[in-house]
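your task:
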Amino acid sequence: MAPLPETIRTFIVGILIGISIVLTYYFHAVLSVGAVFSHFFYIPIILAALWWGRRGISVAFFLGGLVLISHFLLRTDVGTVNDYGRAVMFVVVAIVIAWLSERLKRQQKDTERERDRAQGYLDVAAVLLVVINADQTIGLVNRRGCELLGYREDELVGKNWFDVAIPERNREDARQVFARMISGAATTSPTDEIVIVTKDGDERTLIWKEAVLRDAGGRITGVLGSGKDITERIRAQEALQNREAQLRTIVENLNEGLGVFDLDGHPLQWNRAARESFGLFGFESAPGNVSEFDSLFVFTTTDGTVLPVEEWPLSRVLRGEQIRDVEVRTRRIGTDRQRVFNYGGTLVRGAGGSPFMAVVTFTDITDRKEAEEALLAANEVANLYLDIMVHDINNANAIALGYSEILAEDLEGTNREMIQKVRSAVSQSIEIIQNVSTIRRLRSLTPPLRPVDLDAVIRAEIRQHRETDIRYDGRPVTVLADDLLPEVFTNLVGNSIKFGDPDVTVAIRVEDQDGEVLVSVEDTGPGIPDDVKPALFSRFRKGKSSKSGKGLGLYIVRMLVTRYGGSIRVEDRVPGATEEGAAFRFTLKKAAREEPETPAIPEARPPM
């Protein structure tokens, strides 16, 4: 059942009170009922007041007092018009009081509704809003203020603002500012930022605004403060400033020169190494305008070709190129001062992808280039001497072989054996010269790998040893290598023949292996001891046989196989039986295309 409207309840209470008063007079004055009994009629007045609420109780007690007073003042004769008039007056007074109470209650509800609406507006605000009363207590605080300070609203309202929210070190100064505003000496806070402390002890920085509050009479009653939390922004700014300081320190202390330019090519910043580089050209400070460079410097390639301005490293970067390891010789016009720099650079782009500046780095490599040029010149001289020596030694060896061959035809017995040893020594000298020439080619600039017909290389090597039993299954395949690939088979097959018995058999096998080719060169010779195998491919490491050379052949083989991206190992031909012969196995990478560049040779011997 829905409760009665407040106006109807008030009217009913007034009627009941009036009836109670009339009945009290009637029973007491007209019917001469005892005064004590007639007072029981006050009970409806009290019940009606309880039903009406707190205001009804107050009105009941008020009217009851009037009844008592009127009872003692009542005349003893039969009730008169004055008595009934007094009773009617009580009813009228009750109704008037009830009406006034209802009006006040409605006004109170309107006031509460406006207060709740204002509080709602304050709670929606994204900033802290607080009303600080003249006695420094918190009169009102919005939801954002409670969240920021870490308290509930009931924990803040009525508490001293400065004791709760202001750090102790700032508390006295803040109170003095507040006192000046309350006294009217100041209307705003002298600072735009304040620091507050939360319930957890964390300090937050706010952009702070204050304004005095006045009542209807113009008297200052408090201060309204509003603050926006900028703590994270300040911390981010401090972190950014720290990172910028660190970056400036790093850039300034780089050994590499660095220049920052706007998109028109004008210098924005030079670091220490860059300024020192300009000092090498006789400048006390770096040029401040890019237009000066064309009249101050000549840029050339390392071979002396003059570069136009549009091909300068900075110009290329401003066009959008990302340059790296660009070597440029720089000479100051009108002087003999020149340096060689290695340049790099790129455009720096913002979050949207648009460039906003260019960065160019440069390293002075003058000393290194001079050392490289000196070394190159020395190598050229050494190669000249080596070419002359190889040419002369080869000529001498050829003459020695020729004469020894003639002598061998006329000699017999011990003398013939001695000539054969001479021929062997000369052949060994020729082999050494050939190995040295191969190593020199390996040490020179490495050419790019290209497809090579492995089958043709193997067959060409077999043709060089027709007197030896060499067996090959003849599988055509193209690998990545260069012109030195035959040296691998020359050394491996040559070693098998040299260290094997006169009836030694050599087998060459080729197998596919996941994008690679596994090549095996096996022989039936004396084999290789296990203690020799680990260092067999090292430089100048010879075998234990009296026929061992200078230890360069297998070293060259390993260098070539590694150069081609493969690996090599030595094993027993028959696992566990060293004396049954050796097996050299190495891998080569297969070429992407299978067209051989060298024609294959169809002739081959059957496999072993």
Q: What stands out?
A: The longest helix spans residues 366-410.
